[in-house]
Design goal:
The protein is 82% helix and 0% strand. The protein contains five helices and no strands. Helix 1 packs antiparallel against helix 2, helix 1 packs antiparallel against helix 3 and helix 3 runs antiparallel to helix 4. The longest helix is centred in the C-terminal third of the chain and has 31 residues. The chain is elongated and about 55 Å long.
Length: 174
């Protein structure tokens, strides 16, 4: 049987992952309706990834004898000031998720639940990648500043990278 305290914190993390998926989906929709198709593609893909993170938790909780609770979610923002603002909020959000994951890991150690601790290491590594990616994108956007041509090229590059990831995934599935 799963430790009840661990079950509670994992369900809380599950909600954060679901909220992340919705947050990125809202950003993607905003980008798409503002002519930023590459940014939208990138954010749609990340919304799907966050949902996969949530599903991974659902399966883990249930397989360990706990009960995953599918949460109700608050509506995310519907508009953003700029692409820079989107990625600033994205990084801020990811930093909060990292803190939450670190809290789960800390509780696992205190409760001596080494199986869950081991499972959570995937999330720790994933957060390192998420934060690094957000910082890299922010660095590029800050270099671009108000240059519309630069923003066009940035958006096109994000679209091309999303297409490459989709093609690689399709190739791996065959």
């Amino acid at each position: 049987m799963m430790n009840k305290h661990i079950e509670e914190v994992l369900n809380s993390q599950l909600k954060k992952e679901a909220s992340s998926s919705q947050f990125y989906l809202a950003m993607a929709s905003w980008a798409e309706t503002n002519g930023l198709n590459g940014t939208a593609k990138f954010l749609y893909r990340h919304s799907d990834e966050e949902r996969m993170h949530m599903l991974k938790l659902v399966k883990f909780i249930n397989e360990r004898g706990g009960k995953a609770i599918i949460p109700a979610l608050e509506q995310p923002p519907v508009s953003f000031d700029s692409v820079l603002n989107v990625f600033e909020l994205l990084l801020e959000h990811e930093l909060g998720v990292t803190d939450s994951i670190n809290n789960v890991v800390d509780i696992c150690l205190k409760e001596k639940d080494y199986t869950t601790y081991n499972f959570m290491q995937w999330y720790v590594s994933e957060q390192l990648e998420e934060e690094a990616l957000a910082r890299t994108i922010l660095d590029k956007l800050r270099m671009i500043g108000n240059d519309k041509g630069g923003l066009y090229l940035f958006d096109r590059d994000l679209e091309n990278s999303a297409i490459q990831v989709e093609n690689a995934a399709a190739g791996a599935a065959q």
